[in-house]
Amino acid sequence: MVIQGPGSSKIPLPKKFYGYATNCGVRKYRPDLGVLYSELDCVATAVYTKNTCHAAHIHYDKRILPSEKLRAIVTNSGQANTATGSKGDEDNLQMVTLVAEKLELTPDQVASASTGVIGVHLDIEKINRAIPELFLNRSKHAGSFATAIMTTDLSPKTCYLDVNLSGGDIRLTGICKGSGMIHPNMATMLGYILTDAKIDLKWAKKILPEVVDRSFNMISVDGETSPNDTVFLLANGASGVSVENSEDQKVMLQAMNRLAQDMAKSIAADGEGASKLIEVEVQNYPDEQMARKIAKGITISPLIKTAIHGEDPNWGRIYSRLGQEGAEYELVSNCDLYLNKIKVLENGAPVPFDYYAMKSGLSEDFITIRIDFKSTPSSVKAWGCDLTKKYVDINTEYN
User: Which of 84, 158, 188, 225 does the annotation list as catalytic?
Assistant: First the structure.
């Protein structure tokens, strides 16, 4: 279940988790400082951007995570605190310390995240002044925090799942932000996966990269990879239900994959200036890594993205991309290609299709591309969006 926009305020947080949000004055009209807080110690881990330039919050989080005693995450929006030198690290620690003191925690129980314009320091004075008001409004729902972490996002992004394990029911709640600088291997996005299940830290460290690899690492908006982006996993055990055995682990992993993929798709659909969500499925290719490369290559291609925006059924651009990504010609020459479920290529050769039916389908806001290589049974999916003039407008006006 994915809820965006007004419905996001109704998404419940797991047991003993709370959200806080306020405006500290960086943004004019909406919250720009938020905290997620657990009454109980959390097993916590994170996955970070593959960009070798890291934001100050990543320097800090890597020192305290993984952890079995994390209690909170503070996040500011509007100021990335990236390329800010040693002062950026000092400012980040000061923000963390302010939150820790208010919650009567130690700083190493509070993680941090920042998003916004690169090269801009945190406005610590504004954050300090906002801390008392921040903790006046405690919420059991995800919406206020989700709004506080937005940058160019058009709407807050939240979702949840209730999951039945052998010992009872647990809840998974996802919160994320991201709209531009989105590209596989973690780009300008922040993700928070919260659960009241009891999870072993070793297992949490193992599964989070797997979940991220099949979700956030399979989306692209513009091919840019940001220094800030992070996905957190926090489990506080408040439900009293443990992930106890291999069957529980299987169910939990499936639920986390579904949650994370829904989160990732909501980011792709809200790409800066986007009007269409594109889903690419590569079926039955014998090499999974190459299948992933093909799927992601299609989502990033400006030629394909602009064709989709123009509602132009130019499947030749997709065919060309198969070879550009290194697909074996023998497999390409036998593949079937579907655009919005309409077959345009069979056994590597074009087939007639209803042009007007295709044009009508391409006017929708959800577009599918499927390539079936008819070899080893497999399926890989990636998500992206169309490329519009509005994307240019947003990014020329961002500062």
Answer: 188
Residues 219 and 308 in one domain: no
> Which residue shows structure tokens 């997620």?
36
Among 235, 269, 303, the domain boundary falls at 269
CATH of the domain at 286: 3.10.20.340
Which of 266, 260, 270, 187 is closest to 228 using CA atoms?
A: 187
The per-residue pLDDT for range 38-67, each reduced to its tens digit, is: 999 999 999 999 889 999 999 999 999 999
**H or E element that contains 112:** strand 110-117
Structural domain boundaries enclosing 66: 2-269
Total number of domains constituting the chain: 2
- Between CA 204 and CA 388 the distance in angstroms is 39
Model confidence pLDDT, tens digit, residues 141-162: 999 999 999 987 878 899 999 9
Residue carrying structure tokens 């994915």: 2
Domain end (from 253, 269, 285): 269
152 is catalytic: no
Q: How far apart are CA 140 and CA 158, in angstroms?
A: 13
Q: How far is the C-alpha of 365 from the C-alpha of 288, rounded, in Å?
A: 28
The answer on 262 and 159 residing in a single domain is yes
Task: Report yes or no: 236 and 17 within 8 Å, Cβ to Cβ.
Answer: yes
CB-based contacts of 330: which residues, under 8 Å, 6+ apart? Answer: none
Identify the H or E element spanning 283.
strand 277-283
Residue 360 identity: S
